[in-house]
Design goal:
The complex is a heterodimer. Chain A is of the alpha/beta class. In chain A, the strands form 2 sheets. A 6-stranded mixed beta sheet of chain A has the order 6-7-8-3-9-10, sandwiched between helices. In chain A, strands 2-1-4-5 form a 4-stranded antiparallel beta sheet, with helices on one face. By secondary structure, chain B is mainly alpha-helical. Chain B has a single domain, classed as MetI-like fold (Orthogonal Bundle). In chain B, α1 crosses α8 and α6 packs antiparallel against α8. The radius of gyration of chain B is 22 Å and the shape is flat. The mean pLDDT of chain B is about 95.
Chain lengths: ~250, ~230
């Protein structure tokens, strides 16, 4: 048995007739940066949403540290406790529009963790500093560019000090010239030893920053491996096709 | 305009104004407050999908949107006494207006809550906020902003609807104009004067709406908080 920090086994999920996940196994070790690749519709985002319970899986098991259970039988209270260990960065940022950058970062600390306001503010400023957004602390999301919003969203995810941060295509909604600043922040987090799962289309990031690459197609993991092996000598036919296509695109 | 009519209008002005201040405005304000409370309750139980209460809310809205306000007013004031329930005119009007407004405004609130993007819910749940916290801190502040223009529409509509209270013996703005017109026989001038009063109230409300709307936009950096010690 592996001693991974977070592991899901045999995950199934369908939306109506459409079966999106068909028995996915996935595990994360502490300190890992895992890139999840695959073309649209391969189920990568759904996998992330099932792990974080934003979408209920139809079948499977979840293990997180010493918690182990059938993923369909996890109670609401347990979901809340598990989420306390996870940070989630959304494709569309999802900053609270009625709160400033600072308030966005503080909110979880004050309301969910019951951290005193003064301390929460201090932590929030530290997190904003990490993503280079202290100067915009009192700005509302509508006043920020997409890249800035995503950096604040990363600070918000970091603030609750999660064991693992799940990134759902964090740069896909950004203008090309804004992806760099977000990827740079993520690279720094990886360098600092954060555990990260990154669903992405950024091949460069997967190649250079990830410790492990997982490739999904049609709701299953088709191939996985260290990035140097994955990119230079892919074994599966689907992987080869995918890599050829993305390389010709970019 | 003859000086006789002019004098009538001038004399009537404070009388109609007093009726507006003593009855039309209190009727509007109280009905709006109660109506919005009813609406909020009806909207929240629907969004939260609470069994039983949700069906009750749909039933309530069906009844009060499906029947004319004046009929509701008559049932409460003229109809209920035959069942032994006697409610004086002013509270009757408040009850009818509030319950009617509640049905319409519930739909405004409900659609505003639904209009807040699903991502806001997801983000709130991922940082550990509970359902009530998410509602109070994230969803309602945004929903309120979305609901605000149609909410003011309701308020302006209600202001004018209070003239129906004249049918149940309440001497509000319109009834007052009616009474004076009957005694001096100048219906055109006096009903126009009543119309002007409604127009003034609604103009003020429109002005207030645009002022408040400008304040509710999150488009300027927040003033730096007083340094916490």
């Amino acid at each position: 048995m592996s001693n991974s920090m977070l592991e899901v086994k045999n995950i199934y999920k369908s939306f109506g007739e459409n079966q999106v996940l068909k028995g996915v196994n996935f595990s994360v070790d502490k300190g890992d940066v895992i890139a999840v690749l695959g073309s649209s519709g391969s189920g990568k985002t759904t996998l992330l949403k099932c792990i974080s319970f934003l979408e209920p899986a139809n079948k499977g098991e979840i293990t997180f540290d010493d918690f182990h259970k059938d993923i369909t039988k996890v109670t609401k209270k347990e979901i809340r406790q598990l989420r306390m260990k996870m940070g989630f960065v959304f494709q569309s940022f999802n900053l609270f529009r009625n709160m400033t950058a600072l308030e966005n970062v503080e909110e979880g600390l004050i309301r969910a963790r019951k951290v005193p306001a003064v301390e929460a503010e201090k932590i929030a400023f530290e997190m904003l500093d990490k993503v280079g957004m202290t100067e915009r602390a009192y700005h509302y999301p509508d006043l920020l560019s997409g890249g800035q919003q995503q950096r604040v969203a990363i600070a918000r995810a970091l603030a609750i000090n999660p064991e693992v941060i799940l990134f759902d295509e964090p740069t896909s909604a950004l203008d090309p010239e804004l992806t760099g600043e977000v990827l740079e922040v993520m690279r720094q987090l990886a360098y600092d030893g954060s555990t990260m799962v990154v669903v992405t289309h950024e091949m460069e990031f997967a190649r250079k920053v990830a410790d492990w690459v997982v490739f999904m197609a049609d709701g299953v993991v088709v191939e996985e491996g260290k990035p140097e092996e994955f990119f230079t000598s892919p074994k599966n036919e689907r992987t080869i096709q995918f890599l050829r296509k993305t390389q010709s695109d970019g | 305009m003859s000086s006789r009519v002019f004098n009538i209008l001038v004399t009537a002005f404070p009388q109609i104004g007093l009726a507006a201040i003593k009855l039309t405005i209190p009727l509007t304000v109280l009905s709006f407050i109660f109506g919005c409370s009813i609406a909020l309750f009806l909207a929240l139980v629907q969004v939260a999908n609470i069994k039983g209460l949700k069906q009750f809310a749909r039933f309530y809205i069906w009844i009060f949107r499906g029947t004319p306000l004046i009929v509701q007013l008559f049932i409460i004031f003229f109809g209920l006494p035959s069942l032994g329930i006697i409610i004086p005119a002013f509270p009757s009007a408040i009850i009818a207006f509030s319950m009617n407004l509640g049905a319409y405004t519930a739909e405004i609130f409900r659609s505003a809550i639904m209009a807040v993007s699903k991502g806001q819910w997801e983000a709130a749940s991922m940082i550990g906020l509970t359902y009530p916290q998410t509602m109070a801190r994230v969803i309602m502040p945004q929903a309120f902003r979305i609901a605000f223009p149609p909410l003011f529409n309701s308020l302006i509509g209600l202001t004018k609807d209070t003239s129906l209270a004249s049918c149940i013996t309440i001497v509000e703005l319109f009834t007052k104009a009616q009474q004076i017109s009957a005694s001096v026989f100048e219906p055109f001038a006096l009903y126009c004067e009543a119309a002007v009063f409604y127009l003034i109230i609604c103009t003020v409300l429109t002005w207030v709406q645009s002022r408040l709307e400008k304040k509710m936009v999150w488009d300027k950096p927040k003033a730096v908080r007083a340094a916490r010690q």
